[in-house]
Amino acid sequence: MRVLNISSSAAVDLLRERGALDVLSVVPDEAEAAVASTSASTLGNEAAARSWVGDVVSVPPYMGPFSVAVVDRDWDGVGDGGLRGALVKASLMMRPGGHVLVYSSRGSLVDRDAVAAVVRDLCFEVVGDVGADGDAVLLCVPDGFAVPNVSSPIKMAGEVVAGYGRGSRKLGVPTANLRPDDVASETDGLPLGVYFGFVRHESGSGNDGVVRKMVMNIGKRPTFVTDNGPEESIEVHVMDYDGGDFYGERLAVLVVGFLRPEMKFDGLDALLNRIQTDIGMARSQLDGDRWKCLPGDW
Ligand code: RBF
Ligand code: MG
Hints:
The protein has six helices and 13 strands. By secondary structure, the chain is of the alpha/beta class. Helix 1 (10-17) links the parallel strand 1 (2-6) and strand 2 (22-27). Helix 1 runs parallel beside helix 2 (30-41). It binds riboflavin (RBF) and magnesium ion (MG).
Protein backbone atom coordinates (compact mmCIF):
# COMPACT_ATOMS: atom_id res chain seq x y z
CA MET A 1 0.00 0.00 0.00
CA ARG A 2 1.48 3.34 -1.03
CA VAL A 3 0.65 6.35 1.14
CA LEU A 4 0.98 10.05 0.39
CA ASN A 5 1.78 11.84 3.64
CA ILE A 6 1.06 15.57 3.44
CA SER A 7 1.53 16.05 7.14
CA SER A 8 4.28 15.89 9.75
CA SER A 9 6.88 13.14 9.50
CA ALA A 10 5.63 11.90 12.88
CA ALA A 11 2.87 10.15 10.95
CA VAL A 12 5.32 7.93 9.08
CA ASP A 13 5.94 5.44 11.91
CA LEU A 14 2.23 5.18 12.65
CA LEU A 15 1.42 4.57 9.01
CA ARG A 16 4.08 1.90 8.64
CA GLU A 17 2.97 0.17 11.82
CA ARG A 18 -0.47 -0.01 10.25
CA GLY A 19 0.90 -1.78 7.19
CA ALA A 20 1.79 1.05 4.82
CA LEU A 21 4.61 -0.39 2.71
CA ASP A 22 5.63 2.76 0.98
CA VAL A 23 5.16 6.24 2.41
CA LEU A 24 5.98 9.38 0.47
CA SER A 25 6.15 12.39 2.81
CA VAL A 26 5.87 15.88 1.41
CA VAL A 27 8.26 17.99 3.49
CA PRO A 28 9.21 21.69 3.48
CA ASP A 29 13.01 21.27 3.79
CA GLU A 30 15.96 18.87 3.94
CA ALA A 31 15.91 18.79 7.75
CA GLU A 32 12.37 17.48 7.76
CA ALA A 33 13.27 15.09 4.92
CA ALA A 34 15.94 13.56 7.15
CA VAL A 35 13.43 13.09 9.97
CA ALA A 36 10.94 11.46 7.62
CA SER A 37 13.49 8.84 6.58
CA THR A 38 15.29 8.17 9.88
CA SER A 39 11.96 7.81 11.49
CA ALA A 40 11.11 5.04 9.04
CA SER A 41 14.51 3.31 9.14
CA THR A 42 13.83 2.29 12.75
CA LEU A 43 11.21 -0.04 11.28
CA GLY A 44 13.57 -1.80 8.95
CA ASN A 45 12.92 -1.10 5.34
CA GLU A 46 14.46 2.24 4.53
CA ALA A 47 13.59 2.25 0.86
CA ALA A 48 9.90 2.32 1.64
CA ALA A 49 9.95 5.76 3.25
CA ARG A 50 10.67 8.49 0.76
CA SER A 51 10.32 12.22 1.00
CA TRP A 52 9.67 14.97 -1.47
CA VAL A 53 11.00 18.42 -0.63
CA GLY A 54 8.52 21.02 -1.81
CA ASP A 55 4.78 21.12 -1.85
CA VAL A 56 2.30 18.52 -2.98
CA VAL A 57 1.57 20.30 -6.23
CA SER A 58 5.17 19.70 -7.35
CA VAL A 59 5.14 15.93 -6.63
CA PRO A 60 5.77 14.15 -9.95
CA PRO A 61 2.81 11.98 -10.96
CA TYR A 62 5.04 8.90 -11.44
CA MET A 63 5.50 8.76 -7.65
CA GLY A 64 1.90 7.58 -7.39
CA PRO A 65 -0.60 6.13 -7.56
CA PHE A 66 -1.53 6.19 -3.89
CA SER A 67 -4.06 4.15 -1.95
CA VAL A 68 -4.15 6.54 0.99
CA ALA A 69 -3.38 10.22 1.45
CA VAL A 70 -3.14 11.98 4.81
CA VAL A 71 -3.58 15.74 4.56
CA ASP A 72 -2.92 18.18 7.41
CA ARG A 73 -4.39 21.36 6.00
CA ASP A 74 -1.95 23.43 8.08
CA TRP A 75 1.19 21.61 6.90
CA ASP A 76 3.70 23.57 4.77
CA GLY A 77 3.66 20.91 2.10
CA VAL A 78 0.05 21.74 1.29
CA GLY A 79 1.45 24.68 -0.68
CA ASP A 80 0.12 28.01 -1.86
CA GLY A 81 -3.00 26.55 -3.40
CA GLY A 82 -4.25 25.68 0.07
CA LEU A 83 -6.44 22.70 0.83
CA ARG A 84 -8.19 22.93 -2.51
CA GLY A 85 -4.93 22.85 -4.49
CA ALA A 86 -3.63 19.93 -2.44
CA LEU A 87 -6.81 17.91 -2.86
CA VAL A 88 -6.95 18.54 -6.60
CA LYS A 89 -3.39 17.26 -6.91
CA ALA A 90 -4.03 14.31 -4.60
CA SER A 91 -7.13 13.38 -6.62
CA LEU A 92 -4.99 13.08 -9.75
CA MET A 93 -2.72 10.54 -8.08
CA MET A 94 -5.18 8.29 -6.20
CA ARG A 95 -6.18 4.74 -6.98
CA PRO A 96 -9.87 3.90 -7.23
CA GLY A 97 -11.07 2.70 -3.84
CA GLY A 98 -8.41 4.86 -2.15
CA HIS A 99 -9.01 7.09 0.87
CA VAL A 100 -7.97 10.59 1.89
CA LEU A 101 -7.98 11.77 5.50
CA VAL A 102 -8.14 15.55 5.98
CA TYR A 103 -7.39 17.07 9.37
CA SER A 104 -5.92 20.17 10.97
CA SER A 105 -2.98 19.98 13.36
CA ARG A 106 -3.74 23.50 14.58
CA GLY A 107 -7.26 22.60 15.44
CA SER A 108 -8.74 24.87 12.79
CA LEU A 109 -12.14 23.79 11.63
CA VAL A 110 -12.30 20.85 9.21
CA ASP A 111 -15.99 20.92 8.69
CA ARG A 112 -17.52 18.14 6.65
CA ASP A 113 -19.73 20.47 4.60
CA ALA A 114 -16.82 22.80 3.93
CA VAL A 115 -14.67 19.92 2.69
CA ALA A 116 -17.59 18.61 0.62
CA ALA A 117 -17.81 22.01 -1.05
CA VAL A 118 -14.08 21.99 -1.77
CA VAL A 119 -14.19 18.54 -3.42
CA ARG A 120 -17.51 19.01 -5.20
CA ASP A 121 -15.91 18.67 -8.63
CA LEU A 122 -13.24 16.13 -7.72
CA CYS A 123 -13.43 12.33 -7.96
CA PHE A 124 -14.05 12.07 -4.19
CA GLU A 125 -17.05 11.08 -2.17
CA VAL A 126 -17.30 12.27 1.43
CA VAL A 127 -17.38 9.19 3.67
CA GLY A 128 -17.91 11.14 6.88
CA ASP A 129 -16.45 12.68 9.99
CA VAL A 130 -13.76 10.85 11.89
CA GLY A 131 -13.12 11.17 15.62
CA ALA A 132 -15.33 12.09 18.51
CA ASP A 133 -15.13 15.82 17.86
CA GLY A 134 -15.43 15.40 14.13
CA ASP A 135 -11.94 16.79 13.82
CA ALA A 136 -11.11 14.99 10.60
CA VAL A 137 -12.99 14.18 7.40
CA LEU A 138 -12.58 11.00 5.38
CA LEU A 139 -12.94 10.99 1.59
CA CYS A 140 -12.83 8.09 -0.83
CA VAL A 141 -12.43 7.58 -4.55
CA PRO A 142 -15.40 5.40 -5.50
CA ASP A 143 -14.42 2.00 -6.92
CA GLY A 144 -14.07 2.15 -10.66
CA PHE A 145 -14.00 5.96 -10.45
CA ALA A 146 -17.80 5.77 -10.47
CA VAL A 147 -19.31 9.25 -10.78
CA PRO A 148 -19.58 10.43 -7.15
CA ASN A 149 -23.14 10.57 -5.82
CA VAL A 150 -24.57 9.01 -8.97
CA SER A 151 -25.85 5.48 -8.48
CA SER A 152 -25.90 4.12 -12.02
CA PRO A 153 -24.30 4.86 -15.39
CA ILE A 154 -25.62 7.97 -17.11
CA LYS A 155 -27.21 7.46 -20.54
CA MET A 156 -27.34 10.33 -22.98
CA ALA A 157 -27.57 10.84 -26.73
CA GLY A 158 -26.96 13.80 -28.97
CA GLU A 159 -26.20 15.01 -32.44
CA VAL A 160 -22.58 15.72 -33.34
CA VAL A 161 -22.10 19.40 -34.15
CA ALA A 162 -19.11 21.39 -35.37
CA GLY A 163 -16.63 22.22 -32.61
CA TYR A 164 -14.77 25.46 -32.26
CA GLY A 165 -12.23 24.49 -34.88
CA ARG A 166 -9.49 24.28 -32.33
CA GLY A 167 -8.30 21.24 -34.16
CA SER A 168 -8.59 18.44 -31.66
CA ARG A 169 -7.94 16.13 -34.62
CA LYS A 170 -4.64 17.81 -35.35
CA LEU A 171 -3.77 17.37 -31.68
CA GLY A 172 -4.21 13.63 -32.15
CA VAL A 173 -7.26 13.51 -29.94
CA PRO A 174 -10.21 14.00 -32.29
CA THR A 175 -13.43 14.79 -30.48
CA ALA A 176 -17.08 14.70 -31.47
CA ASN A 177 -18.95 17.62 -29.91
CA LEU A 178 -22.46 16.76 -28.79
CA ARG A 179 -25.15 19.40 -29.20
CA PRO A 180 -25.39 20.82 -25.68
CA ASP A 181 -29.21 21.10 -25.77
CA ASP A 182 -29.55 17.39 -26.60
CA VAL A 183 -27.80 16.34 -23.40
CA ALA A 184 -28.60 19.29 -21.15
CA SER A 185 -30.85 17.37 -18.77
CA GLU A 186 -28.25 14.62 -18.23
CA THR A 187 -25.23 16.90 -17.91
CA ASP A 188 -26.96 19.51 -15.79
CA GLY A 189 -25.43 19.54 -12.33
CA LEU A 190 -22.47 17.36 -13.30
CA PRO A 191 -19.13 18.97 -12.47
CA LEU A 192 -17.02 20.16 -15.40
CA GLY A 193 -14.29 17.63 -16.04
CA VAL A 194 -13.27 14.37 -17.60
CA TYR A 195 -15.58 11.35 -17.72
CA PHE A 196 -15.30 7.95 -19.38
CA GLY A 197 -17.55 5.20 -20.62
CA PHE A 198 -18.88 3.79 -23.86
CA VAL A 199 -20.23 5.20 -27.11
CA ARG A 200 -22.11 3.86 -30.12
CA HIS A 201 -23.89 5.35 -33.11
CA GLU A 202 -27.64 5.65 -32.90
CA SER A 203 -27.96 6.38 -36.60
CA GLY A 204 -26.02 7.55 -39.61
CA SER A 205 -23.38 6.02 -41.83
CA GLY A 206 -21.14 5.24 -38.87
CA ASN A 207 -23.86 3.06 -37.35
CA ASP A 208 -21.93 -0.21 -37.39
CA GLY A 209 -23.40 -1.52 -34.15
CA VAL A 210 -20.02 -1.45 -32.44
CA VAL A 211 -19.77 -0.25 -28.83
CA ARG A 212 -16.50 1.64 -28.33
CA LYS A 213 -14.71 3.09 -25.33
CA MET A 214 -14.67 6.84 -24.89
CA VAL A 215 -13.41 9.69 -22.74
CA MET A 216 -15.52 12.81 -22.52
CA ASN A 217 -14.68 16.35 -21.48
CA ILE A 218 -17.51 18.52 -20.24
CA GLY A 219 -16.10 22.00 -20.00
CA LYS A 220 -14.97 25.35 -21.24
CA ARG A 221 -11.38 24.51 -22.24
CA PRO A 222 -9.71 27.06 -19.97
CA THR A 223 -6.28 26.16 -21.39
CA PHE A 224 -7.27 27.90 -24.61
CA VAL A 225 -10.23 30.09 -23.84
CA THR A 226 -9.34 33.03 -21.63
CA ASP A 227 -12.55 35.04 -21.62
CA ASN A 228 -15.61 33.44 -20.16
CA GLY A 229 -17.14 33.53 -23.61
CA PRO A 230 -18.03 30.16 -25.04
CA GLU A 231 -20.49 27.91 -23.36
CA GLU A 232 -19.78 24.48 -22.11
CA SER A 233 -18.86 21.95 -24.74
CA ILE A 234 -19.42 18.24 -24.43
CA GLU A 235 -16.59 16.58 -26.33
CA VAL A 236 -16.35 12.83 -26.83
CA HIS A 237 -13.08 11.21 -27.88
CA VAL A 238 -13.81 7.76 -29.31
CA MET A 239 -10.92 5.51 -28.33
CA ASP A 240 -9.26 3.16 -30.82
CA TYR A 241 -11.11 4.69 -33.75
CA ASP A 242 -9.71 6.74 -36.57
CA GLY A 243 -12.63 7.01 -38.96
CA GLY A 244 -14.09 10.31 -40.08
CA ASP A 245 -15.89 12.91 -38.09
CA PHE A 246 -19.46 12.22 -37.11
CA TYR A 247 -21.06 15.54 -38.03
CA GLY A 248 -24.83 15.27 -38.16
CA GLU A 249 -24.90 11.75 -36.75
CA ARG A 250 -26.32 10.83 -33.36
CA LEU A 251 -24.16 9.27 -30.71
CA ALA A 252 -25.43 7.38 -27.68
CA VAL A 253 -23.11 7.68 -24.71
CA LEU A 254 -22.95 5.71 -21.48
CA VAL A 255 -20.99 7.57 -18.81
CA VAL A 256 -19.69 5.22 -16.12
CA GLY A 257 -16.94 7.13 -14.35
CA PHE A 258 -15.36 10.46 -13.51
CA LEU A 259 -11.62 11.11 -13.41
CA ARG A 260 -10.83 14.73 -12.69
CA PRO A 261 -11.94 18.35 -12.91
CA GLU A 262 -11.27 20.39 -16.00
CA MET A 263 -8.05 22.34 -15.50
CA LYS A 264 -6.06 25.16 -17.05
CA PHE A 265 -2.79 23.61 -18.21
CA ASP A 266 0.50 25.36 -18.93
CA GLY A 267 0.13 24.88 -22.64
CA LEU A 268 -0.71 22.22 -25.13
CA ASP A 269 1.95 19.63 -24.24
CA ALA A 270 0.90 19.48 -20.61
CA LEU A 271 -2.75 19.11 -21.63
CA LEU A 272 -1.99 16.39 -24.16
CA ASN A 273 0.14 14.50 -21.64
CA ARG A 274 -2.66 14.49 -19.15
CA ILE A 275 -5.24 13.49 -21.79
CA GLN A 276 -3.04 10.45 -22.58
CA THR A 277 -3.06 9.61 -18.85
CA ASP A 278 -6.85 10.03 -18.78
CA ILE A 279 -7.19 7.65 -21.73
CA GLY A 280 -4.91 5.11 -20.05
CA MET A 281 -6.86 5.25 -16.80
CA ALA A 282 -10.16 4.98 -18.65
CA ARG A 283 -8.91 2.02 -20.64
CA SER A 284 -7.82 0.09 -17.57
CA GLN A 285 -11.24 0.64 -15.97
CA LEU A 286 -13.27 -0.12 -19.09
CA ASP A 287 -11.30 -3.30 -19.88
CA GLY A 288 -12.03 -4.68 -16.40
CA ASP A 289 -14.58 -7.37 -15.58
CA ARG A 290 -17.01 -4.79 -14.28
CA TRP A 291 -17.97 -3.71 -17.80
CA LYS A 292 -17.97 -7.08 -19.56
CA CYS A 293 -21.77 -6.83 -19.46
CA LEU A 294 -23.40 -3.52 -20.31
CA PRO A 295 -26.95 -2.44 -19.38
CA GLY A 296 -29.68 -4.13 -21.43
CA ASP A 297 -30.26 -1.39 -23.99
CA TRP A 298 -26.56 -1.28 -24.65
N1 RBF B 1 -9.28 21.41 -22.08
C1 RBF B 1 -8.81 22.14 -21.05
O1 RBF B 1 -8.60 23.33 -21.18
N2 RBF B 1 -8.56 21.56 -19.83
C2 RBF B 1 -8.72 20.24 -19.60
O2 RBF B 1 -8.48 19.77 -18.49
C3 RBF B 1 -9.17 19.41 -20.69
N3 RBF B 1 -9.30 18.08 -20.55
C4 RBF B 1 -9.69 17.33 -21.62
C5 RBF B 1 -9.78 15.95 -21.48
C6 RBF B 1 -10.16 15.15 -22.54
C7 RBF B 1 -10.21 13.67 -22.36
C8 RBF B 1 -10.48 15.75 -23.78
C9 RBF B 1 -10.91 14.90 -24.96
C10 RBF B 1 -10.41 17.11 -23.93
C11 RBF B 1 -10.01 17.93 -22.87
N4 RBF B 1 -9.91 19.31 -22.99
C12 RBF B 1 -9.46 20.07 -21.94
C13 RBF B 1 -10.45 19.99 -24.18
C14 RBF B 1 -9.44 20.33 -25.21
O3 RBF B 1 -8.98 21.62 -24.91
C15 RBF B 1 -10.16 20.33 -26.55
O4 RBF B 1 -10.42 19.00 -26.92
C16 RBF B 1 -9.40 21.03 -27.64
O5 RBF B 1 -9.30 22.37 -27.32
C17 RBF B 1 -10.14 20.90 -28.96
O6 RBF B 1 -11.41 21.45 -28.88
MG1 MG C 1 -14.13 18.52 -31.50
